[in-house]
Write a structure and sequence with these properties.
With 154 residues, this protein is an alpha+beta fold. 23% of the residues lie in helices and 40% in strands. Strand 4 and strand 5 form a beta hairpin. The longest helix has 17 residues, at 11-27.
Length: 154
Amino acid sequence: MARPPLPPFTEETAREKVRLAEDGWNGRDPAKVALAYSEDTKWRNRSHFVSNREEAQDFLTGKWEKEKEYRLIKELFAFRGNRIAVRYAYEWHDDAGNWFRSYGNENWVFDDDGLMKERYASINDLPISEDERKFHWPQGRRPDDHPGLSDLGL
């Protein structure tokens, strides 16, 4: 099952891959998002480790149960061959209504079919007040005219 764009990446195809990942995660459908990862995908997400696609789906299910009103922006940082580095920020709140902006960096490695086989994420959570939020689009895909991270000064 190929997931274009395929490596080796150009700047254009790397940007496209990043936006497709952002769109998928903003859709918050764990089963659908997990299909972008190889069967034997390996992740490090904070202190959590994932060893296959099924575990990735379980991880995402738990993530989006905890992180309410999740909205994410990803930005290409670097690319080469079958690797892409991104920086990102997302906003969410917990069950008590406490808002956070989570900042992170990810390093991705893709197989020849364009499936992500490795994902290494480093993330920090910053408590914010509701009036400090910057991501206000309706749940789902970020509108094309919404500012990106650099435009927002993040």
